[in-house]
Amino acid sequence: MRALFFSVALLWVPLCLAQPADQQERAELRDFLDATINSAESFDDKYDAEVWLVDMSARLARYVKDPAYRLEILRQIHAASLKADLPPELVLSVIEVESHFDRFAVSRVGAQGMMQVMPFWKDEIGRPDDNLTYNLTNFSYGCRILQFYLQREDGDLHKALARYNGSVGRRTYSNKVYRAWDKHWRNGPLDWAD
Q1: pLDDT 10s digits, 13-67
Q2: Where is the signal peptide (predicted)?
Q3: pTM of the model
Q4: What is the CATH number of domain 85-194?
Q5: Which of 31, 44, 121, 156 lies at a C-alpha separation of 20 to 30 Å from 14?
Q6: Distances from the Cα of 166 to the Cαs of 95, 149, 161, 171, in angstroms?
């Protein structure tokens, strides 16, 4: 059954990953997806990796046009999220609200990268040379910061997100993240307690 699904999914991939220009590009994309799935160490099962990556890649296409880059980002987000014990779909929602998946985004207050991490964190942890526009670094910082706030707020997503955004006491930001999750990234329940 898995082999059949894998074969069907690989044939379907070019449709959901934005139409490749020709057969060679289609074959290269199929090979890249296969390699991405096989190197996705944060998944317990290659079937789960395939399903999640294909599904989320189709959802991410509105923001990231290059299918190979989309899969790379998704694999990195999934790994960083799980290391921080966060649902990857929550992290995708935060990134959508923070930067719309622009790795070079800089806010008016100086936050950088996809997860809009403030540069002072680099000095706080003694790594002043880290590049916050480098996705792996940005995802690692952003996920760990959100994990810290979620633990500090006893699992209350609204409060943790407000701390992440620097808007403690307000729900404007957390409501934006909730709407992004609900509209684009939801694939299971999250505890958005009121």
Answers
A1: 444 444 445 677 556 655 654 554 455 566 677 777 888 999 999 999 999 999 9
A2: 1-18
A3: 0.80
A4: 1.10.530.10
A5: 44
A6: 15, 11, 8, 11
